[in-house]
Amino acid sequence: LMVNPYDVEAMAATIARALTMPVDERRERMRTLRRRGSTWDVNTWAARFLESLATSRPSRPSPAEDSSALMRALAVAREGDIRLMLDYDGTLVPFAHLPELAAPDPALLELLERLLQLEGVRIDIVSGRARESLDEWFGHLPLALWAEHGFWWRLERGRPWACGVDLHPGWVDRVQPILDQFTANTPGSSIELKSASIAWHYRNAPEEFGARQAHELRLLLTSALSNQPFEVLEGKRVIEVRLRGVSKAVVARSLRTQTAGTVVAFGDDHTDEDLFRALPPGSITVGVGERPTRARFTARDFVEVRQILHALTRIRRGQTPGDTP
Is the pLDDT of residue 324 over 50? Predict the structure, then answer.
């Protein structure tokens, strides 16, 4: 039972709850504690530490040098067509405490409209979000939408949505009971159900406890779903189970017959690495945030991403990046 030890009244109430707890609940909680203790021991901690150390980002240019190099690359591409492939959460907007609270702000919508007015610029929003959310937020704009990491897509405004992978009837029934149990045992966590995936968010859980629960959940799901048509993804304070074959690489493969210009892709998560890896040679890729990435360039956060996109509008108009809009 979690409690603030400096809150005397809460401590007393929690002790009273423990003393009067039904036997079945005591046993279930004890099983959870034992399972956690058997998996999250000093050897596991050491192995994860060394794994993180081994995959840490190699030495890169300073942010200022990286930004200058990116501006030069965009300037070289300004004479031809550009296809902007933009992740949403963490790339165009900051992360929200609840997924439904991350609607685009007026400044972002204005920026996208300015970009869409530029000759030779096409925009794709490539997100893990459900299609309903993307339709509500961006359906009025003349851009392409890719929902649930490429499972659903709508290439033009007003066109119907299409999907790329056959859904297995009842697939979620194999996964949701496990996530329900972890949600009940992890205060601040929640479940988001989509067409081809189900996500367990723990952004509002205590950081250390949430990380332990996420590690245990990932191990359990990987074992339970072996030899099944699913894959387990670990993102920024989220564990997601999706149908195998659904990834942002699907979006990249669609470019082979559609794009004759330069692809400029932004993303902040492990799922965006699938996109970066599958893009045509010569694409300009930008990893957002402090994490290992195969992207050619990096941006600190969504604020810098917006600054880069503003600079792109000036470059396309023949101005220098530092000119006043």
Answer: no
Alpha carbon distances (Å) from 89 to 27, 176, 202, 216, 301: 39, 24, 15, 25, 11
pLDDT of residue 310: 94
Residues contacting 173, CB < 8 A, separation 6+: none
- How far apart are alpha carbons 40 and 22 in whole angstroms? 27
Q: How confident is the model over 245-254, as pLDDT tens digits? A: 778 888 888 7
Distance CA 93, CA 319 (A): 26
- 87 counts as catalytic: yes
DSSP calls for 4-41: -TT-HHHHHHHHHHHHT--HHHHHHHHHHHHHHHHHSS
Q: Tokens standing for 77?
A: 């591409």
**Residue 144 backbone phi and psi in degrees, to 5:** -90, 145
Q: Which of 41, 87, 89, 180 is catalytic?
A: 87
Which contiguous run of DSSP H or E holds residue 152?
Answer: strand 152-154
For residue 52 the two structure tokens come to 């993180």
Q: Pairing between strand 238-243 and 230-235? A: antiparallel
| Beta strand pairing call for 284-288 and 262-267 | parallel
Q: Are 118 and 311 in contact (CB under 8 A)?
A: no
